[in-house]
Design brief:
416 residues; 2 domains; mainly beta; 4-stranded antiparallel beta sheet; elongated; 11-stranded mixed beta sheet; Jelly Rolls
Amino acid sequence: MDGWQRCFLFSILWLIFTPMDATFGSHKVTAAANNEPARGRKLATDNPGSISIDCGVNDDYVDDNVGLLYKSDRDFISTGENHDAELGSTQFEAFTERLCKNLRSFPTGRKNCYTLRPKQGKNHNYFIKTLFCYGNYDGKNQPPKFDLYIGVNYWITVEGLASFLWRTHELFHFSSTDTIHLCLVNTNVGVPFISALELHPVNDSIYRSEFGSLMVARRSQLSYPTDLNFRYKDDVFQRIWRTYGLANTTWVNATSDIQVQEIDDSYKLPIEVLKTAAQPQKGLHSLRYNISFICSPSCDFYVYFHFAEIVEIPQDQRREFTITLNMSQINILKKQLSNEKDLGAAKKILGIEITRKKSIRKLFLSKQAYIEKVLKRFNMNNAKPVVVPFAAHFKLFANMSLKTYEEMEHMSSVPY
């Protein structure tokens, strides 16, 4: 096809859904050892109003890997106990090591809540992220199971933890109050705990749902074939990106630097994520992204795709492709329909006659058969037709409407 180039070039796929469900394998950040006072240092990432808490530490510090000021949680909660994780017990990502060294547990009280007061206040959208590193801190090798709440609203059950793994749960939450309470609720299956908690203001025009908060189900950077987790310093929302390798694809790297102004939109994607992409190994073949969740039939999913043109193409060409959902089900339906006999253009549907006049490019719908049926029912099929069923000078008024049961009973046998 002259002047066209058709291929799939996926840069990023971000999948989120409304019912609050868990996100797996996304997590936090490592901090380089640095004893320099946090207050006097410039942060690399600028997102005013962010709150980043390393639960269970005594002092604030700056994490140079992501440019965040992590605060002790002592000013956000008054209950619970600080603990150190068992050394060498957790398989850390480079950016989770420091956050997983400490935690705060809550052996007393059914419900223990962190109190967050972001500068933006109420009627604003926030990205809330929690991190859990059990690390066998209690020496029992029995990870707990407990619930998370935002205020009085249930968020998710934290479960499936292990001594050597870490897990995060993420939520886009629109707050109608100035204060946000994140609560850990004891369900009598071990002692609730938390390793880190973050809140980042988000532009109100993105990640909004008319049904409530949005729980992150999967966020993928289509690049390296192995599952790796990355957190980028220029990501103002401090998202964690998991690489995902699509089958039968080749990997493409940016041929030149991507200018910041080209991607400076509300989603503020980190440049490193946009520098890699996937494309089919052969010509016009498709890219397939398969994913499934254990979810009730009522679950609603929101899918966000992000694209960047990172491979130069001739000026007389352009890139074009389509995105389809659940193609296997579509193909099954098409196959079923292909076995049916083609009856040609429809002539009648639900008693309505269809007439086509191709010469004037118009289509007419007629309910003549239904009208004749009604007239026959009221013995008026032989009546003389007129333009209107009463004289043109006759006027109708609201006070002429039926008022008594007897009037209604009488008029039920009158056709008009």
